[in-house]
Amino acid sequence: MENGAAQPVIVAIDGPSGTGKSSTSKAVAAQLGLSYLDTGAQYRAITWWMVTNGIDIDDPSAIAAVAGKPEIVSGTDPSAPAITVDGVDVSGPIRTHDVTSKVSAVSAVAEVRARITELQRSIAVGAARGIVVEGRDIGTTVLPDADLKIFLTATPEARAARRSGELRGVDVHSTREALLKRDAADSSRKTSPLAKAGDAVEVDTTDLTLSQVVECVVTLVEEKRAAK
Ligand SMILES: Nc1ncnc2c1ncn2[C@@H]1O[C@H](COP(=O)(O)OP(=O)(O)O)[C@@H](O)[C@H]1O
Ligand SMILES: Nc1ccn([C@H]2C[C@H](O)[C@@H](COP(=O)(O)OP(=O)(O)O)O2)c(=O)n1
């Protein structure tokens, strides 16, 4: 109904690396005129800051002590995702192998999660038309009252093939090993691990094209909006 369409809608999309969270979330948000938040980019940004400032990544108490220092600002336009730390554009540097290999350790620290979770909730509340938020713990912890929760999966082989397609020169086998190592760390940490919320819809993207996944999620959002 017309009334329902005007209300903000909150969509949580979680899942492991390479399942299509970012591509799907951006496309769904753009198609439906919603904001978009990449929470992985925020954890990457705080990790970049720790590395740049010489913080010992193997020392959780050293990370916790400075977790409140960097100012992280996330853009929410799905057609121009942006992220800055203390005013510096870090959208490139947060994708380096060095940051990727350290982000699980930094994001396991409770003080880091508390700080970033608060930031994520304030961005979601401020999205007038609604928002698609993607990450690992959005449906379980950050936005447990989201209107729609999606949990994307795909086989490790499919995920590694997708990722190594992006990282030219890196072979599928080592990409697969690195992905599985990060999944294990993210799923086993104490504070809000990567997990499917009980009320999330699971979508296995292994044999689906990106357009098919987007269409599936858009349909689910429209159904939720109509029922609101
Ligand atoms: N269903 C799909 N089929 C094939 N490739 C996909 C699919 N979904 C995403 N991709 C591609 O896989 C790569 C990783 O997708 P991305 O959205 O970054 O995943 P995530 O955010 O879950 O890590 C990108 O190059 C993207 O274009
Ligand atoms: N909500 C989130 C999002 C990401 N993280 C952490 C754990 C992930 O390994 C890293 C990086 O996430 P990101 O989504 O950028 O990773 P991929 O692009 O899927 O490889 O951040 C998290 O702990 N909680």
TrEMBL record:
Enzyme type, top EC level: transferase
Keyword Lyase appears in the UniProt entry: no
InterPro entries in UniProt: Cytidylate_kin (IPR003136), Cytidylate_kinase_dom (IPR011994), P-loop_NTPase (IPR027417)
Keyword Chaperone: no
Cytidylate kinase domain segment(s): 11-222
EC numbers on record: 2.7.4.25
SUPFAM superfamilies given in the database record: P-loop containing nucleoside triphosphate hydrolases (SSF52540)
Residues reported to bind ATP: 15-23
First-listed, main subcellular location of the protein, grouped into a coarse class: cytoplasm
Superkingdom field: Bacteria
Subcellular location: Cytoplasm
Keyword line: ATP-binding, Cytoplasm, Kinase, Nucleotide-binding, Transferase
Catalytic reactions of this protein: dCMP + ATP = dCDP + ADP; CMP + ATP = CDP + ADP
Pfam families per the UniProt record, alphabetical: Cytidylate_kin (PF02224)
GO molecular function, one term: kinase activity
Similarity remark: Belongs to the cytidylate kinase family. Type 1 subfamily.
HAMAP family: Cytidyl_kinase_type1 (MF_00238)
Protein name: Cytidylate kinase
Gene name in the database record: cmk
